[in-house]
Amino acid sequence: MKKRMAIAAALALAPNSALAQEDDHKWSAGAIGFVNPSPFVGEKTEIRVFPYVSYSGDRVYLRGLEAGYKAIKPQRGAPGAQVSFDMMVRARPQPGSSRDGFSLDAGARFGVDTSIGTVALTALQEVSGKHDGLELELGLSRRFSGADWAITPSLSVAWQSRGLANYLWGVSAADRLDMVVSGTNALLPAFELDGSVVNANAGLVASYDLTARWSMVLLGRATWLGSNARENPWIDNRMDASVGLAVAYAF
Question: Does the predicted TM-score (pTM) go above 0.90?
Answer without folding.
Answer: no
